[in-house]
């Protein structure tokens, strides 16, 4: 397959220079030392520390696994640890997300749940055998117990993704952290709340599941202003992060707050567990993004806008010919411009058109678009960016006891908070796009004061 | 359902209530209403580990469970829904000498009752599960006929079959009280909630150590709205199968039950290709785990002190305790990941045996609660017995023994093979 | 067109399957989740919950009041690391029972 690595020297059509700036910030040759990983017995050139999913994508490999029941081809879709598309076996450990596993020299990556390979899996017949759905509730129930038992024993063999690791791994001792406030999620809002909290004199631990801070700002392809300078998303985010560290906040990157309870929060940082006991918890962990509901929307080569932007930051373009569509979002225009700048042919939909179906056998080779099925025409492309509007990531706050409720305006669920970030739980606060209330934005400094009031006075009000 | 009259009202659309409803309908009693405060599978019937075993320490339980296992085997073909019953056996481990002696006695009794239970030395464990670390194990027992099911379709299967025969099932319908006359229940007062307006104990807890937090939007809290539909149904017989919620419902009738709800937590891992045959249960610390049909390792453990009361929230203590015990048993699971944890309520009685049958002083109330953590596996056979009891009004020796009055009379029973 | 529309990628749940489940009476989001299995896989609903809730809303008239109960963890956690949390968080009943048995034998 053709390489999708971007040659920075060949970047053209970049009048504002922002794409180059973004690329240089992260895709310059010194971003990570060259290394080699092995994928299904094949050597792949990679850069140390970059997500394996992008090493593979850069080498033209976009079909990484097969789905659990239908054995449909799957590949990275979100590139931020929120989907199952890139699950592979890494160094003997099943079900690692290739988008979250860093490349290291000699790492062994294997595709799962396919025979003989992820690109060509004969078990795909399941997909064709059940053209609409897989009705596992009523499969073979009409032919008596014996036949049913035979079906079950076959179904059991087909189930499961990876296989049990051959050997155990020693887990390092956990780290116990006590602090006034735990801030989860270092997107723009989390960075700002954490800084304000430190300014209020609180001891703050801030965790971010990605290996970098900045969230949507980092993945953006627009200019940001900091201290009177014009910076690209990555630079602006790093500037914010440096301020946070300077203010004395204990910052943990590559640290996922996985589960939160009344007595503490379990954070997994790389290969180690943290047990964080905080007087107050502040959730600023943003939103989810997905692709829309169109035919074969799970085909490898279908990405969210954020995934495509992130790939660019690692010097990889998701395709040579890319259809960019989705809910109205200015980021899509910036993304289209950036993809053009790095030499990709970009297709956009015209007024009234929509994406009906992705086509291709093991990854995207085209798209059916049109006003309806009768007027559909085919576009030849090797990647589709099809984002839906973002929806609040209410799950973690929900674990802490903050009710998520319907938001009829945005047709989604969001954590309930007042304009000061306070929730039903006096020790739990939310801010940013996790929270309900698109009309009355929760302001970071106000949230920080609520948290301070709670921590110092014991309770709010 | 719009008021009216039913021969039998069953409170609780869990597996026990639905199995009973189905057996009543099969016996021709279709004038039955089953009510539940939430959705199907919302209580313990949808939250358990799906284990079905005959390895118990009392003859009664062993014989009842043999019948339940037979029902499970034919359930898919008979009820036309897959429940993924798989007889991989139950492998019991003990790590102390005292428990090993109890296991020996139970295994002997089980063989006398016709089970194929055999005792295994630590070295022989690996013949059954090669991945197990036998270090520290005193003795194990294995019965190949035990197995696991997927609980949800089991509940749906009974519900659909009962409905097809005319039983009415009203979900999101909560009991608010009873009408009684001369020591009999004449009516059940019900309130219908919105589909999603259930009171979920696993979600919201409005107070913290620091005191009650602010209530931001009272309209959004999960309470029954004032304008909810309320109605009363008349009935001849009420069967109380509300599991851990039974004591609070019995209280509405002035009946104090000795059973108490206790949280029990479970978690499940990422799906792996099949490697684990049996359900493994460690009698010493209450650890159990099995591999579901989807390939996940599903299991739980007893966490002490278990708080009394309805509580379905998850805890870190459970996760850490379970993980520590599980990786001790199977070290290669260290890199396997937990995908989901949840909690349900055990319905614990002082003597580990259920409360079944009529209640003195409330002639037409039939109890079916206090099934500890194994109500699910008992339900297939208990449903038949309860339906027979209601249809014939005859009290068997078993129902006399399991009656509520034993606690008043001080005739407690025993059962030592309880997990978790 | 014969292409499948995947609402829940992790568990291979199609739009047709969700629609069929709603038609067969799964009118609340918790029941719909259990019946179709959406949200029970690798991502635990991060990708699919909204899509399925919107399909349900289109059929029954309004988005559910609340989503399905969010259960820990948000991201998968290795058992070995959970075990390592050890004494800070967990209890070891085997150790305590052995200790008390040893005491009894002495």
Descriptive overview:
The complex is a heterotrimer of chains A (461), B (420) and C (106). By secondary structure, chain A is α/β, with parallel strands linked by helices. Among the domains of chain A are: 32-159, Ubiquitin-like (UB roll); 175-288 and 391-457, FAD/NAD(P)-binding domain. Helix content of chain A is 23%, strand content 27%. Chain A has helices spanning 18-27, 52-58, 125-129, 144-158, 188-199, 215-219, 233-246, 305-313, 330-341, 395-399, 444-457, and strands at residues 34-39, 42-47, 65-66, 73-74, 87-90, 93-97, 108-110, 175-184, 204-207, 224-226, 229-231, 250-252, 255-261, 264-269, 272-283, 287-288, 302-303, 321-326, 345-348, 354-359, 366-370, 377-380, 383-387, 391-392, 404-407, 412-415, 428-430. In chain A, the strands form eight sheets. In chain A, strands 8, 9, 12, 13, 14, 15 and 27 form a seven-stranded mixed sheet that branches. A five-stranded mixed sheet of chain A has the order 2-1-7-5-6, with helices on one face. In chain A, a hairpin with a 4-residue loop joins strand 25 and strand 26. In chain A, helix 5 packs across helix 11. Chain B has two domains: 5-47 and 153-203 and 213-259 and 351-409, FAD/NAD(P)-binding domain, CATH 3.50.50; 87-147 and 261-348, D-Amino Acid Oxidase, subunit A, domain 2 (D-Amino Acid Oxidase, Chain A, domain 2), CATH 3.30.9.10. In chain B, strands 1, 2, 8, 9, 10, 13, 19 and 20 form an eight-stranded mixed sheet that branches. In chain B, strand 16 (287-291) and strand 17 (297-300) form a beta hairpin. Chain C is mainly alpha-helical and 106 residues long. Chain C has a single domain (6-105), classed as BFD-like [2Fe-2S]-binding domain (Arc Repressor Mutant, subunit A). Chain C is 49% helix and 7% strand. In chain C, a hairpin with a 4-residue loop joins strand 1 and strand 2.
How much helix is in the residues of chain B? 25-40%
Q: Can you tell me the number of structural domains of chain B? A: 2
CATH architecture of the largest domain in chain B: 3-Layer(bba) Sandwich
N-C termini distance of chain C = 77 Å
Structural class of chain C: mainly alpha
Please count the helical segments of chain B.
10
The H-level CATH homologous superfamily of the largest domain in chain B, spelled out, is FAD/NAD(P)-binding domain
Number of individual domains of chain C = 1
CATH superfamily of chain C: BFD-like [2Fe-2S]-binding domain
Proportion of residues in β-strands of chain C: 5-15%
Low-confidence stretches of chain C: none
Which architecture of chain C does the CATH hierarchy give at level 2? Orthogonal Bundle
| Estimated radius of gyration of chain C | 21 Å
Radius of gyration of chain B: 21 Å
For the largest interface, the chains and their residue counts are: A-C, 73 and 57 residues
Q: Choose one word for the global shape of chain B.
A: globular
Q: Note the quaternary state here.
A: heterotrimer
The end-to-end span of chain B amounts to: 39 Å
Outline the low-pLDDT stretches of chain B: 197-222
